[in-house]
Design brief:
22% of the residues are buried. The protein has 8 helices and 10 strands. α5 runs parallel beside α8 and α6 packs antiparallel against α8. It is globular and about 55 Å long. It folds into 2 domains: 150 residues, no CATH class; 60 residues, no CATH class. It starts with 12 loop residues before the first strand and ends with a helix. The protein is α+β, with helices and mostly antiparallel strands. Bound molecules: iron/sulfur cluster (2 copies). The site of one iron/sulfur cluster (SF4) has 12 residues, from loops.
Length: 251
């Protein structure tokens, strides 16, 4: 049986899933399609996911980019986007897939944790509130359905350790929505460098903050900055600075 994804495979089926509905899905080395989904993807990474992978691999941003990722302008937002480098020389496989499975499992990106669940956010035009919607992604090559305990989508999210990554994605989506509303199209080259720094290059962000070289911020006393070792706090701090630097106090 050929379980590999290929160009002749039918389009994935999306089956809407309410928060109360249960589904069964399990995946692991015993399954015939093991690892076959970790190839031929465009795996865009959020800044939170890049940070998790960098910490796991102990790589500074420039080395992570050089070895494992590509950086380009997102076609919809004009903002810098990072994707994993699925090189043709490796059969377009993920740089982290091994015969034993995912070599960065504890730091795998949120989309890998969520699969086969897809999540979309919708903002109400009436009150501006966000609501989340879920679907199951059913692909012909994937044999994981019908195995394992029945669970709801929120049990799945918690079981996969995807909650924090989703919250970080939601914060990012707020910033992107603001950017699309106030500054559609590409930013100025200097501003794009700020975005790369605040999203991905936290070592540089820390240096620039300490030296007072960030737009709108004089040199900051260490006590007013996040703890040097708390990269997740720095990521949030950098996003807040970036939002002010690009859009002022607009909401
Ligand atoms: S990061 Fe891990 S789970 Fe995600 S595509 Fe790569 S090998 Fe697969
Ligand atoms: S069951 Fe689905 S998710 Fe798991 S390895 Fe197979 S194709 Fe990938």
């Amino acid at each position: 049986m050929n379980t590999e994804p290929n160009s002749l495979e039918p389009e994935p089926e999306l089956v809407a899933l309410s928060p109360q509905e249960r589904f069964q899905f399990s995946c692991g080395p015993g399954i015939s399609c093991f690892n076959h989904c970790c190839q031929d993807l465009i795996q865009a990474l959020t800044p939170y996911n890049v940070l998790g992978l960098r910490r796991h691999l102990k790589l500074a941003w420039p080395h992570f980019l050089e070895q494992h990722a590509v950086l380009y302008a997102g076609p919809d937002t004009g903002l810098p986007v990072v994707s994993l480098r699925f090189a043709p020389s490796r059969g377009r496989r993920c740089p982290f897939v091994t015969p034993q499975g995912c070599s960065v499992y504890s730091a795998r990106p949120t989309s890998c944790r969520l699969y086969p669940v897809a999540r979309a956010l919708q903002r109400s035009r009436q009150d501006g509130r966000l609501s989340e919607h879920f679907a199951l992604v059913k692909e012909a090559h994937c044999r994981g359905f019908g195995h394992g305990p029945a669970m709801t989508v929120h049990e799945w999210i918690d079981g996969q350790g995807a909650r924090e990554g989703l919250e970080a994605s939601d914060r990012l989506m707020e910033l992107i929505a603001l950017k699309n509303r106030l500054r559609p199209g590409r930013l100025a080259p200097e501003e794009e460098q700020w975005v790369v720094m605040a999203f991905y290059d936290l070592e540089l962000l820390k240096q620039e903050a300490a030296a007072g070289r960030l737009k709108g911020l004089a040199a900051q006393p260490p006590s007013s900055l996040p703890d040097a070792g708390d990269d997740y706090a720095w990521l949030n701090w950098g996003l807040a600075w970036l939002q002010r630097a690009l859009f002022g106090e607009a909401r």
